[in-house]
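Figure 3 (text version): structure tokens given as input.
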């Protein structure tokens, strides 16, 4: 199976050369565990290779995404300006819609349903790589069955177009939907922060829970966030 590089060389080596092309990877974890940074690496690598990339941003404005990438040494702004990278401003649309709803005196905005299937229509033909960050905002009022049905249809449609996708989903949304997203995707990565009582500090870990047709290690890998993004750390010798 052809692979798409992750943007982190050491990670590529651990998963058979990269993410399976034309398939969807799910990244889940709590706040602050570098889910978005993992996605930025993926998008930046695609841009470097001349691929047509798209970010569907449900929680940030484009300027913040570009600034974060810049702070990590990944100059996405150049590709955004030349058009090889596009950013779908879902976050701005959501907040604007909420303001309109409030102006009509409707207070229970959380009762509104979001159209997950409509995301496929927002992805132009010829797109190679998509980062969807964060799909959790679409799950607030969905039952697990409804989410599974919509998510399955979305993932299947993108796969038919041979688009390699990374979907980020916060742990709370994943739990709220009973973890059903795991059954739809080709691979799952979990990021976490754990206390190290021996060093009296907190550490970040990355776990590959599954990638179909790929030999993987289930052991968590410790990593750090540096000025160049995510760096995997070698296992300490005892």
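Below: residues designed for each position.
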């Amino acid at each position: 199976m052809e692979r798409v590089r992750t943007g982190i060389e050491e990670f590529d080596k651990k998963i058979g050369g990269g993410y399976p092309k034309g398939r969807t990877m799910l990244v889940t974890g709590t706040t602050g565990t570098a889910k978005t940074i993992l996605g930025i690496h993926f998008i930046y690598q695609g841009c470097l290779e001349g691929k047509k990339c798209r970010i569907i941003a449900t929680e940030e404005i484009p300027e913040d995404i570009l600034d974060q990438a810049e702070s990590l040494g990944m100059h996405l702004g150049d590709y955004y300006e030349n058009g090889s990278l596009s950013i779908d401003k879902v976050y701005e649309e959501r907040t604007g819609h909420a303001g309109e709803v409030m102006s009509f005196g409707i207070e229970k905005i959380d009762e509104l349903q979001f159209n997950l299937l409509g995301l496929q229509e927002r992805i132009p033909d010829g797109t190679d790589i998509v980062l969807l960050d964060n799909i959790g905002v679409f799950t607030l009022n969905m039952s697990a069955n409804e989410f599974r049905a919509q998510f399955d249809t979305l993932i299947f449609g993108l796969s038919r177009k041979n688009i390699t996708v990374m979907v980020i989903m916060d742990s709370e949304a994943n739990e709220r939907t009973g973890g059903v997203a795991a059954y739809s995707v080709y691979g799952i990565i979990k990021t976490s922060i754990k206390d190290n009582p021996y060093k009296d500090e907190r550490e970040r870990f990355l776990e590959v829970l599954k990638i179909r047709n790929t030999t993987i290690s289930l052991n968590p890998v410790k990593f750090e966030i540096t000025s160049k993004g995510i760096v995997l750390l070698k296992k300490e010798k005892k």
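The CA atoms of residues 97 and 103 lie 10 Å apart.
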